[in-house]
């Protein structure tokens, strides 16, 4: 194995840390897997102790049973503390309050008289923001040399009996006979029955830094005046607690905190926790006294305080830079202990699929891999195609989720993580924090975009071929190509959704511009009314991280990654304050109010036009209706609770509409319709064949995602740069619009896109009315997602003083964000690589045009290739784009606690749950535009073409 050895603060010859896998990044990925294994251990133990029919909660993976927990201890440093050990809080005579928890080591709440080893956790409180956790056990070394051995051993021994024998066989396969025997002997030798927790010595095992340069191990040993222990009990299951209480009732319990200095990497290794730091090589130096004050721990008050301490999560990384943990096992503890604590607190979940799913799923992956090389999934029989998609989604989850967040690599000390505020347990936050209560910043505003494919930065191809040339030759709309299976609401809807999901922050033009050379003989004015130049200037994105060659490599989302309706509600308190009127959203005679620029005021109003105005108006009205119904049903609710509950309901309804209505409309095939509706509701109850197949291969898919628990599939949740790329669907937008009366179908006006964009949207919204606007969109078609259908209006667009060609911007952004070119993109999504042009499109004219622009098929831009690809029958976009969709569509629901474990009446209210489940886009439209009832499709979604009104001679319906 390649090792990355990095010196820390002192010469390499003295001590070093060695990273598993060769780098901190690789090691972190391994630790995340180990953290999930620890949760698996907890689940195994819970199942074992619940086997007699009485459910047990998830406990600590280790040290589950407390034998003494007190919060009135104190740590006092020696007045004669050696000079080189005076670091941070460690100062002569300094005293700090402390909380102490003694425990048995096993993850089961077994009697004290069962042989085991024992542990202690001490939290030293420096001030309100600073504390230090010390963890130790009553054996000087770990049975495991590193984190991998530790976790695998825990998995092997989590369940007694035959399972332990199987686990031991697994250990032999992984580490060999010698190491397995060593670990088993180590654990067997240290398991015993002490007479008292107060007379045991507890060692840290792993090392910590003491100051900037000195590694130490620490230990807690009984003070010299500690009385002898009594004989262990063979009858009292809590004798250690009983003895500790008796001892504390009579006097203080005191321990000496000692440290052993690092000598060299042979006798005092930092990385190998199975090697003892012998006292003959490094004598323990007393540095402080831990005093647990005399008290009666049996009182009701003390028992309540002990229960509160028992709920605490101790972690060696809850410390300061002066006492940073060292070594592989300690570095793994941060992720592992956090996962274990979150699992116990029910803010993070783990469940292994049944054995039948694992076995049959593996067989199905191999079988479908063979089938798909010969028959595309969409040409298979319907139920076989559904199972194929379910299996393929599992493959994508395993191979195409990449974490880009650079935080905490390598791990750093931190303050004790605070408990989530109570108000975030029942409501979404504006900035997306605390959706995952165990990782509060996951998916929040400012969190980086992830990846589905490894980034591919090609500065040599940033301008090759020229993006302007690509736009003019391959994208520009020559004549409008309609998508006749959809109506214009489908086009407005996806922009409505994208504004909720993604927003790359950008600089103002002139701060950090991207320049694109114009083709010879052409010029461009990048500012409204500005001079013509031989380059096109595009405002640069704000980057979180740049490469050594200057390429921007990581970008933050200025919106929340969650499906939380932020396009309606905004992402910050200032915007929401402008929008709210008590629990309701402000409306002006049923329409959105205007901001200072004369543009409609809503959560997100960039790239604004009449289609967005209609949907934002519709769902602002829907929010207010939900508020009124909640107030009527539950008059005791506060304004804040009414607003937050209504927001939950509207956001979930939007997510449901997108899942079971919009997507099956644009991907109009029976397997997609069945599969996506199953995403929300599970398979149809009468479709026993599909239910049986999914039960055999993916039990979680049998009930619909809202009935399951959150699952990030091993990678912190985020939307991805690849996801952004496949949702570049601007060809949906027509250039010309026809507005008609919903009662007579007579033409009211014709407009071009720019006539109904920006500040012009409101005047048309009010003059036409919501009914006529919805009817006009419902009876007209969007553009097809294909080459030569990019709206001309968006190729010469004014935005915030910029003059932009959005088609060029789309190409430039995708290239510079490191999204692989089309051939690499499809290959990364497990499609066969294109070897010649004719494999890309079955249209000879398209092939010829692509040849004229690109030097090779490997250089075709991702967006161009997605538009050129011949989609499956019924699909509104390419099968390659669909692969990102099938992965991320489920992920947006599966990761969100408000669409899974907290999608329940206690959070949404019974009325709110019913509202989400019983409503559709059609019912929303008809609630606010009831006169359209006869015009919407009877059996299709509201995104399918509507019936046109049939006028009589006097202008009334026939």
Give structural notes.
By secondary structure, the chain is α+β, with helices and mostly antiparallel strands. 36% of the residues lie in helices and 12% in strands. The protein is built from 26 helices and 21 strands. The strands form seven sheets. Strands 3, 4, 5, 6, 7, 8, 9, 10 and 11 form a nine-stranded antiparallel β-sheet that branches. Strand 18 (736-740) and strand 19 form a beta hairpin. Helix 9 crosses helix 19 (806-816) and helix 13 (610-633) packs across helix 26 (921-928). The longest helix is centred in the N-terminal third of the chain and has 29 residues, at 162-190. It is elongated and about 100 Å long.
């Amino acid at each position: 194995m390649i090792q990355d050895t990095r010196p820390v603060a002192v010469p390499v010859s003295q001590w070093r840390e060695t990273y598993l896998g060769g780098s901190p990044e690789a090691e972190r990925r391994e630790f995340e897997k180990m953290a999930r294994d620890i949760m698996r251990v907890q689940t195994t133990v819970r199942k074992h102790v619940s086997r007699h029919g009485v459910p047990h909660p998830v406990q600590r993976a280790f040290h589950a049973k407390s034998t003494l927990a007190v919060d009135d201890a104190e740590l006092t440093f020696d007045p004669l503390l050696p000079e080189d050990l005076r670091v941070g809080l460690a100062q002569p005579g300094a005293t700090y309050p402390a909380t102490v928890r003694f425990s048995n080591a096993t993850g089961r709440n077994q009697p004290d008289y069962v042989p085991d080893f024992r542990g202690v956790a001490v939290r030293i409180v420096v001030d309100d923001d600073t504390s230090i956790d010390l963890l130790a056990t009553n054996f000087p070394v770990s049975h495991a040399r590193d984190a991998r051995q530790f976790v695998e051993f825990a998995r092997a021994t989590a369940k007694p009996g035959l399972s332990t024998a199987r686990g031991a066989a697994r250990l032999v396969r992984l580490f060999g006979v010698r190491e397995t025997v060593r670990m088993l002997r180590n654990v067997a030798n240290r398991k015993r029955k002490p007479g008292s927790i107060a007379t045991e010595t507890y060692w840290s095992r792993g090392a910590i830094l003491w100051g900037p340069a000195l590694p130490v191990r620490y230990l807690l040993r009984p003070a010299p005046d500690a009385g002898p222990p009594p004989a262990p009990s063979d009858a009292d299951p809590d004798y250690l607690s009983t003895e500790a209480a008796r001892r504390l009732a009579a006097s203080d319990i005191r321990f000496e905190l000692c440290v052993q200095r690092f000598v060299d990497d042979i006798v005092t290794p930092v990385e190998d926790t199975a090697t003892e730091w012998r006292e003959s090589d490094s004598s323990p130096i007393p540095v402080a006294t831990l005093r647990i004050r005399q008290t009666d721990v049996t009182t009701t008050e003390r028992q309540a305080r002990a229960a509160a301490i028992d709920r605490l999560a101790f972690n060696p990384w809850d410390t300061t830079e002066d006492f940073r943990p060292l070594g592989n096992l300690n570095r793994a503890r941060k992720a592992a202990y956090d996962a274990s604590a979150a699992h116990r607190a029910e803010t993070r979940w783990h469940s292994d699929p049944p054995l039948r799913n694992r076995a049959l799923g593996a067989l199905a992956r191999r079988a479908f891999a063979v089938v798909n090389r010969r028959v595309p999934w969409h040409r298979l029989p319907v139920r076989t195609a559904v199972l194929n998609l379910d299996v393929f989604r599992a493959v994508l989850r395993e191979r195409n989720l990449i974490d880009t967040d650079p935080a905490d690599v390598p791990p750093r000390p931190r303050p004790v993580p605070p408990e989530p505020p109570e108000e975030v347990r029942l409501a979404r936050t504006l900035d997306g924090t605390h959706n995952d209560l165990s990782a509060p910043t996951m998916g929040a505003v400012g969190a980086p975009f992830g990846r589905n494919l490894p980034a591919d930065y090609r500065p040599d191809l940033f301008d090759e071929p020229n993006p302007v040339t690509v736009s003019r030759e391959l994208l520009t709309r020559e004549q409008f190509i309609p998508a006749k299976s959809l109506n214009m609401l489908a086009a407005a809807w996806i922009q409505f959704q994208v504004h909720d999901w993604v927003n790359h922050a950008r600089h103002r033009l002139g701060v950090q511009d991207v320049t694109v050379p114009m083709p010879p003989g052409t010029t461009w004015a990048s500012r409204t009314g500005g001079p013509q130049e031989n380059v096109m200037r595009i405002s640069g994105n704000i980057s979180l991280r740049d490469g050594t060659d200057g390429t921007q490599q990581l970008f933050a989302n200025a919106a929340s990654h969650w499906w939380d309706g932020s396009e309606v509600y905004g992402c910050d308190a200032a915007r929401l304050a402008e929008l709210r009127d008590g629990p309701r959203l402000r409306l002006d005679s049923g329409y959105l109010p205007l901001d200072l620029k004369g543009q409609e005021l809503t959560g997100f109003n960039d790239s604004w036009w009449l289609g967005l105005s209609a949907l934002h108006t519709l769902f602002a009205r829907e929010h207010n209706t939900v508020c009124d119904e909640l107030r009527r049903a539950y008059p005791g609710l506060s304004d804040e609770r009414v607003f937050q509950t209504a927001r939950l309901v509207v956001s979930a309804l939007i997510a449901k509409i997108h899942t079971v209505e919009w997507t099956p409309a644009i991907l109009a095939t029976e397997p997609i319709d069945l599969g996506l509706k199953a995403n929300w509701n599970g398979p149809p109850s009468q479709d026993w064949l599909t239910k049986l197949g999914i039960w055999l291969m993916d039990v979680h898919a049998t009930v619909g995602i809202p009935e399951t628990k959150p699952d990030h599939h091993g990678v912190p949740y985020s939307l991805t740069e690849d996801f952004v790329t496949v949702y570049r669907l601007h060809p949906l937008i027509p250039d010309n619009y026809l507005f008609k009366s919903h009662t007579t179908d007579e033409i009211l006006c014709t407009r071009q896109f720019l006539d109904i964009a920006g500040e012009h949207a409101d005047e048309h919204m009010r003059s036409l009315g919501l009914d006529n606007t919805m009817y006009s969109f419902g009876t007209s078609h969007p553009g097809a997602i294909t080459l030569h259908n990019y709206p001309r209006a968006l190729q010469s667009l004014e935005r915030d003083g910029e003059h932009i060609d959005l088609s060029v911007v789309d190409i430039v952004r995708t290239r510079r964000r490191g999204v692989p070119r089309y051939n690499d993109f499809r290959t990364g999504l497990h499609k066969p690589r294109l070897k010649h042009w004719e494999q890309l499109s079955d249209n000879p004219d398209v092939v010829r045009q692509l040849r004229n622009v690109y030097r090779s098929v490997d250089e075709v831009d991702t967006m161009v290739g997605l538009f050129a690809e011949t989609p499956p029958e019924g699909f509104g976009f390419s099968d390659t784009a669909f692969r990102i969709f099938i992965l991320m569509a489920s992920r947006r629901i599966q990761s969100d606690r408000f669409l899974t474990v907290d999608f329940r009446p206690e959070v949404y209210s019974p009325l709110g749950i019913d509202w989400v489940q019983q409503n559709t886009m059609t019912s929303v439209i008809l609630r606010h535009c009831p006169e359209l009832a006869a015009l919407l499709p009877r059996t299709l979604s509201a995104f399918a073409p509507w019936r046109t009104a049939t006028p009589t001679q006097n202008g009334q319906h026939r």
